[in-house]
Amino acid sequence: xxxxxxxxxxLTYDLASDWAADGLxxxxxxxxxxxETIDAIAAVLAARGCAVDRIxxxxxxxxxxxxxxxxxxxxxxxxxxxxxAREALVPALLEEWGIPCAMSDAATLAATHRKxxxxxxxxxxxxxxxxxxVLTEPDEAITLAFPVFAKPVAEGTGKGISGASLCHDAAALxxxxxxxxxxxxxxxxxxSWLPGREFTVGIVGAGEPVAAMEVxxxxxxESGAYGxxxxxDYEGRMRYRLAGDAEALAARDVAVAAWRALGCRDGGRVDxxxxxxxxxxxxxxxxxxxxxxxxxxLVILAGLAGWSYDRLLATIVxxxxxxxxxxxxxx
Length: 331
Description:
Blueprint: E1 8-12, H1 16-21, H2 35-47, E2 51-56, H3 58-66, E3 73-76, H4 89-96, E4 101-102, H5 106-113, H6 115-124, E5 132-135, E6 148-152, E7 166-167, H7 170-184, E8 188-192, E9 198-204, E10 208-217, H8 228-232, H9 234-237, E11 238-242, H10 246-261, E12 267-274, E13 280-286, H11 297-304, H12 309-323
Parallel strand pairs: 1-2, 1-3, 3-4
Antiparallel strand pairs: 5-8, 6-7, 6-8, 9-10, 9-12, 10-11, 12-13
Helix pairs in contact: 3-4
């Protein structure tokens, strides 16, 4: 496909400041973006001669679609605000208007945002995953052996995850489930506890691993939970390192298998945790990863692997352009 003139790329995103102006605060803003993230993405695109259009969130995109505006490609990192499939809204709109979209499509984002749905799909494709249950009421019985780990079924950035998520008995689980259902107005995912090492694996394209990064807690961290507080203060609470031993390589393979099973594309992360015997299991997947140029896990692990921010973003967009027959200058 030949595009006359510069490639016109729209950016769709949710700025935390926009949602703060609408009354949200604290943990409710955790998934939304800072201006420096959008500036950094735009700079990578502009450096390759693209005409960058900063569209913003879904409610800014929709009137422009109705006015029949078009872009050669939209780079989408919109998280959405409401509903258990909220990440799928912008790709679904773009698909309806026939506009190519970088990052995963609506069907994949609807499936992956529900952690239980993602685990079922991955498990059915043979990807090892811990046993789990879903609670819609705090006092529902489960057949899983304790300890278990409880978290909201459709949140990201560690929202709703704390030291209390690790439950050693039914009473503790009931209390945590009641709190999470009340706080997030959604079911609770309960998983058999995996006490081993934790990894996050960066992936680009249809399943090319960037690296496996081990996630470790310092003495200052909230114990047992890579949740919102630990992520927010990662420099003081967490320690990250690239891992290439046999267990880490097995974790990488689990991550790639989950990525492919769920039909993800272009770029993202997969979280993996090992059981007591060192066997990695799929935990969850993030096909709309944070892309802050300093603080986001995917950017951190890519940097540890020797990838610049420019290389990471250019690779992600390059895969999207290749899928859609669009010209792209990789370097």
